[in-house]
Amino acid sequence: MSQVVVTTWRGTFLLDGDRVVHSELAPDDDPALLERVRARRRGDLTPEEARMLASPESRSWVTGDRRLAEHGPRLDARSPRILSRSDRDTSRLRDLLLRDAEQALEESWDPSIHVEEAVRAASDLDRVKNLIGERLGSWAGRDAPGLDVEDHARAAARVLDEEPLESSLGPGDEALRSARRRLAELYRAVETAQAALAAAVESATPERTPNLVALLGPAQTARLLAQAGGLDRLARLPASTVQVLGAERAFFEHLRGRAPPPRHGLLFLHPAIQSAPRGERGKLARALAGKVSIAARLDQNETPVRAELAQSFERRRAELKARRGAPKRAKGRAGSAPPLHGASEHR
Q: Which residue from 88, 138, 246, 322 has the least number of CB within 10 angstroms?
């Protein structure tokens, strides 16, 4: 029967049946034990595990721990992972695990979440403003048949007496007149809140993500962060996923066989891609996505702005533009020379 290697928060043990044949005990102080709890959470080996598995005989052992199986022992799900219930269920271990969880939460906090919330709030307010504006335009149009009901800002101005509106409301309808003014004031308040959110994003984004802002600008960077779910997740995404962020609906339509694969998502908002011919947009989006992936990782590591990222993208853009203006090559075998005049076709 194979010997079993088992690790606990107190150390690492080699079992032969019910007998402990070798042990590597962890230090009995809280900081050292807490560091070992964190190492196991990260998937790393503790010093005791590393010493135990350094034995040349470790490949003949079995273990129920996948972490240990990657370093020699054979994985066997039936093997024990703890020595006893009492070793696992202790108040000291519970305290260590709670402290580790608290630190893990602190480490996972992404400050860009505030930018993400601001972008989503602005998007929510945009829907709210449209709903209020549609109702306001319809209501104001009752007293001004020539008013364009789609011009919500002008409807608000007329209701607020900035452009006098001949009201059909009588003296006894003051409550309705007041309510309509409150609706126009609400429309203006939403506009003010949206402007404040946009200004906040413009000022906060460059400080948190300078490399991304150098490539995309503050507004588009903020939208991309919101779509990805924060800087930490954006930095982990491959360039191919970054390229189509924001085009999830089109992507799923493609998977169902109803549409071609999307070539770009939010990156289409970049002026260089918007202004490019249709045939070049996918190539530019692919090039930009690669630079965005690098920029996100640089920002995650708080690296100063790398100007060469934007310069490299501009070179790619210029290259595609130059190809657009170059004459097309005649079809034929590459590198083949035209036949000499008068030469025979047959030897």
A: 322
Neighbour tally for 45: CB within 10 Å:
20
Closest residue by Cα to residue 231 from 250, 204, 252: 204
- Give the containing element (helix H, strand E) for 11: strand 11-16
- Structural domain boundaries enclosing 103: 4-108
pLDDT at res. 293:
93
Token readout for 306 is 């790398």
- pLDDT tens for each residue of 182-207: 999 999 999 999 999 999 988 888 88
Angle in degrees, CA 7, 13, 19, rounded to 5 = 130
d(CA 35, CA 210): 34
The overall longest dimension of the chain from CA atoms, in Å, is 108
Q: What is the CATH number of the domain that holds 309?
A: 1.10.246.90
* Residue 345 in domain: no
- If phi > 0 it is left, if psi is from -120 to 50 it is alpha, else beta; for residue 93 that is alpha
| 216 and 276 housed in the same domain | yes
235 and 307 share a domain? yes
Neighbours of 234 (CB within 10 A): 28
Quote the distance between the C-alpha of residue 125 and its chain's center: 22
Q: Is the pTM of this model over 0.85?
A: no
Question: Is 330 among the domain residues?
Answer: no
- Of 66-75, 85-94, 254-263, 299-308, the range with the lowest mean pLDDT is 85-94
- Check whether residue 95 and residue 118 sit in a common domain: no
Is-contact 296 232, C-beta < 8 A? Answer: no
Residue ending a domain, choose from 175, 204, 233: 204
**Nearest-angstrom CA–CA distance, 223 and 123:** 10
| Mean pLDDT for the stretch of residues 149-166 | 82
Whether 336 maps to a domain, the answer reads no
Nearest-angstrom CA–CA distance, 176 and 98: 58
What whole-number distance in Å separates Cα of residue 72 and Cα of residue 4?
Answer: 12
Q: Is 226 exposed, middle or buried (0-12, 13-18, 19+ CB in 10 A)?
A: buried
Cβ atoms of residues 129 and 190 within 8 Å = yes
